[in-house]
Amino acid sequence: MLKKKIIKWLVIGLMMFIVGGFGGFIFDRYLMPFLGSCRFFSKYDFLQGSGKNTTIIRETERVVVKDDNSVNELASSAAQSVVDVFAITDIQENAFSSKSDQKEGKRGAGTILTNDGVVVTHKNNVFEDESSKYYITIFDGNVFEANLIGVDNFSDLAFLQVEGVNLSAVPFANSDDAIIGKKVIALGRSFGSHQVSIAESILSDYNEIFNLAGKELSSSEKLEGVFNLSFNVNENYVGGPIVDYNGELIAITSFVDFDNEKEYFQIPSNKVKNSMNKIFSGEAENSAKLGVYYISIDDYFSRLSSLPIKEGAIIYSSSGKQGLAVISNSPAEKAGIKINDIIVSINGEKIDLKNPLSSIINKHKVGDRIQMEILRGNKEMDLDVQL
Is the pLDDT of residue 158 over 60? Predict the structure, then answer.
């Protein structure tokens, strides 16, 4: 009997809890907001918060990665690919030198590109002299002799080879996939012993029309298209790597002298790799030349000059003189290219900002014949050019 009473009261209690809970829900969800909206009850503060939505945030684990730690780890890893390059050569005897054993030296940063000892640096850090000697100092202070493999005058990069050692190389990233605005790390040589300079930066811009000729006009024999970074670059970084947060090579820092001032920029890693491949295949020494100065056409220049097209390369000189736009006795002059001609394509390959004239010419070698689609005024024509 007692057991039945207990069960009865438990059932009654449970029913009251259910009914009360349901009533509370109705009261809070519908009746309270209704009363709060009435003019008479709106003056009571306790009714004002009842109609507001409540967001329940589930507790999650929060993992924070500090930039400082990431930079330190990446920099210490990538720094092993940064080297000091020393070039030593004999000074030729002349009226100003009394000793035949005088020597001249150059020093700059370099980057190890392959584990079997390929090092890239700027051409200003080397002597193009067979008698010159080269040395590199790696991160742990060890010094190795190196051989100059070649200089690519298209990119202004020089490549050395250290024989018989396994070195720590930086892996290549695909620079075509680089996102403007991403954080990167710049490395260069330091004045300290066996140290590197490190700067965190932003990949601020890809300048499609910057040409290594160092002038307002582009040269058909110089690389076009470079990165710009937002850090206080100086000569100690020239030849050093720019790496992303995966520790992969995005670019190599370089410069040109323009009006007696150094202008710094970064050569994309894909172009560095192309340059390296041309050096080791022997094609760099036999690179094609066209012999023109031009402007890569974009929307602005097309509208400014009232051109009929928005892409291509216009043969140009600010003075309007043929001899300053087309080099004398060059393949371009022999083929009949004239100032203000617009080169639209080569062998059917369209010329635009992403695929400039100089890059297409650099794919060829001396002696190649190419077909150029030319726009001269409003007349379309084809020219056969032997490079």
Answer: yes
In this model, does residue 42 exceed pLDDT 50? Answer: no
3-state secondary structure string across the chain: CHHHHHHHHHHHHHHHHHHHHHHHHHHHHHHHHHHHHCCCCCCCHHHCCCCCCCCCCCCCCCCCCCHHHHHHHHHHHHHHHEEEEEEEEECCCCCCCCCCCCEEEEEEEEEECCCCCEEEEEHHHCCCCCCCEEEEECCCCCEEEEEEEEEECCCCEEEEECCCCCCCCCCECCHHHCCCCCEEEEEEECCCCCCEEEEEEEEEEEEEEEECCCCCCEECCCCEEEEEECCCCCHHHCCCEEECCCCCEEEEEEEEEECCEEEEEEEEHHHHHHHHHHHHHCCHHHECCCCEEEEECCHHHHHHCCCCCCCCEEECCCCCCHHHHECCCCHHHHHCCCCCCEEEEECCEECCCCCCHHHHHHCCECCCEEEEEEEECCEEEEEEEEC
Q: Is-above-0.85 flag for pTM?
A: no
What integer is the mean pLDDT of 231-255? Answer: 92
- Indicate the CATH number for domain 66-90+105-281: 2.40.10.120
Task: Summarize pLDDT for 316-345 with one digit per residue, the tens.
Answer: 998 889 999 999 999 999 999 999 999 999
Q: What are the structural domain ranges in the chain?
A: 2-47, 66-90+105-281, 293-386
**Residue range 293-386, CATH number:** 2.30.42.10
